[in-house]
Amino acid sequence: MSDLVPYVSRLFIYPIKSLDRVEVETATILKSGALKRDREFAIFDRSGKFVNGKRNHKVHAIRSQFDLKTNIVALRLQETEQISKFHIEQERDALEHWLNKYFGFPVNIKQNLETGFPDDVVSPGATIISTATLEAIASWYPKLEVEEVRLRFRSNIEISGVPAFWEDRLFSTAEETVNFQIGNVHFMGVNPCQRCVVITRDSQTGEAYPHFQKTFITKRQETLPDWTERSQFNHFYRLAINTRLSSTEEGKTISLGNQIRVHKV
């Protein structure tokens, strides 16, 4: 294990929460510890709740392309070719109207430049997973390719140069964090991310994979490495690492190829 050189092999941000990703070469850290532009926008219903895959399976069929330079988002529905483009700030009303018509109820798009809209507001830093882990999970399901697994788990930082579940080294007990660096950015690894119903569904159609959760829980428990802190698993429906960062990391960047160094206690 000492000869391993973990490094960032892929970087993803999700400008509109629950919609499609943008793959980038560099990402900037906000004061909150979140990645700049990640989950910067979110769709809400009139009661103030997220319109996301957890609550509405129709989200899965929306294909989106977000241009980070122009703030123009292109939307189409799965299995269709018609594309509608909107400037997310200047044409917000038109964008919301498109979404209203699709979902069948009124929605609003909100923006948060400070933290985005993370699922875990206590640990809003980037989520981390390894390529080898995605490959291992794909092997559990005969009908899934690695790319589909990647799309389901929606992590920000993917690392290579390590075996499956190596990222479990980046958390400890509930009372402690693991300090590590990606390039010159200091992270605190907090816990394994609790998963929801979204990962059981096809990322493009929302169709449920039979017995996905049961298989996942069984295989995750069977393959849990010796280095994993088992006390963090009140159940085994957990994968990828939640992180926090100090405000001192604001403005720093992480890039493809950056190495990961775990600080020894």
Automatic annotation (TrEMBL):
GO molecular function, one term: molybdenum ion binding
SUPFAM superfamilies: MOSC N-terminal domain-like, PK beta-barrel domain-like
Coiled-coil stretches noted in the UniProt entry, renumbered to this chain: none
Domain MOSC: 92-263
Descriptive protein name: Molybdenum cofactor biosysynthesis protein
